Amino acid sequence: GLKMGGTVVCGGNVIGGDGAFMEATVVTDVSRDNVLFNDELFGPVLSVTKFKEDSEALELANDTPFGLLNGIWTNNLSRAHNLARDLQSGMVSINEYPITFPQTAFTGWKQSGIGIEQSQDALRFYTKVKNVNIKLWGETLPIEIEDLEKGIRKIKMSGKSATQSFSLEFLPIK
Known about the structure:
Shape: elongated
Distance between the termini: 37 Å
Oligomer: single chain
Order of helices and strands: EEEEHEHEEHEEEEHEEE
């Protein structure tokens, strides 16, 4: 990334010891064709790219195959709301570092992530739901319920002239 341009204003040094660790790093003057701008960095690196208008900032931020998190720092809350609405990312933090709570979704858009963690949305992501509709004629049919295995229940309804049988399953997506 630094070979493609940019100025390290702080950090950038390797921290000794086992593993691959580095100091928190800020790089300014990063162009949009730089790997520091285009790749999803999982490390303590902040790349800074200048813009003149909010529309340019939005175009720069959305011009990536990734969309995990965007951060907005401003003293104009109306401006922040407008940008947050139009950013193509699963999460937006305004005037703070990313904070998540168990009741809020942790998710990425585009090529960032494979689903949703946390919140009721995560439960829906890991669940298959099936709706079975049957039109029955004649008398009220008795219902037999049989637990086949954990999470699988067979419901059987039978009558004089016809037998309707179906199973409902709620299983994790694998």
